[in-house]
Amino acid sequence: MTNFRTSVLSVVSQIPKGSVMTYQEVARAVGNPKAARAVANVMAQNYNPDVPCHRVIRSNGTLGGYNRGGAKQKRAILKSEGVI
């Protein structure tokens, strides 16, 4: 696993229930503010249930993709956590 990937997964693991971060915010948090797309790629490849990738959204407020059931499932999970 690369340092970038490890850092992204660490940051996302710390997003509390009921909160979200944008891909750009995660990229900034790992020290690479221009890497929002790379963060999205890491999230797309994440199947670890301990990493709440559903809590990472697009900068424009839309949900973006979700590799465990699509945007509809992502919306349902975020709604159950009180985000939407």
The total of beta strands comes to: 2
**Name of the CATH architecture:** Orthogonal Bundle
The CATH topology turns out to be: Arc Repressor Mutant, subunit A
CATH class: Mainly Alpha
Structural class: mainly alpha
The total number of structural domains is: 1
* Largest sheet properties: 2 strands, parallel
Shape: globular
Main sheet: strand order: 1-2
Rg on CA atoms, Å: 12 Å
Mean pLDDT: 95
Topology, element by element:
Elements: H1 3-13, E1 21-22, H2 23-29, H3 36-44, E2 56-57, H4 70-80
Parallel strand pairs: 1-2
Helix pairs in contact: 2-3
Could you please describe the fold and organization of this structure?
With 84 residues, the protein is mainly alpha-helical. The chain has one domain: Winged helix-like DNA-binding domain superfamily/Winged helix DNA-binding domain (Arc Repressor Mutant, subunit A, Orthogonal Bundle). It is built from 4 helices and 2 strands; from the N terminus they run αβααβα. The chain has helices at 3-13, 23-29, 36-44, 70-80; strands at 21-22, 56-57. A two-stranded parallel sheet has the order 1-2. α2 packs across α3 (36-44). The longest helix is centred in the first third of the chain and has 11 residues, at 3-13. The model has no long low-confidence stretch (mean pLDDT 95).
Tags for this model:
single chain; 84 residues; mainly alpha; Arc Repressor Mutant, subunit A; 2 strands
